[in-house]
Amino acid sequence: MEIFGVPSGALFGQLLIGLINGSFYALLSLGLAVIFGLLNIINFTHGAQYMLGAFVAYLGMNMLGMNYWVALIVTPFLVGATGMLIERTMLKQLYKLDHLYGLLLTFGLALIIQGLFRHEFGSSGMPYPVPEVFKGGFNLGFMFLPKYRAWVIVASLVVCLATWYVIERTKLGAYLRAATENPSLVQSFGINVPRMITLTYGFGVGLAALAGVMAAPIYQVNPTMGADLIIVVFAVVVIGGMGSIMGAIVTGFGLGLIEGLTKVFYPEASATVIFVIMTIVLLIKPAGLFGTQK
Question: Is residue 164 part of a domain?
Answer without folding.
Answer: yes
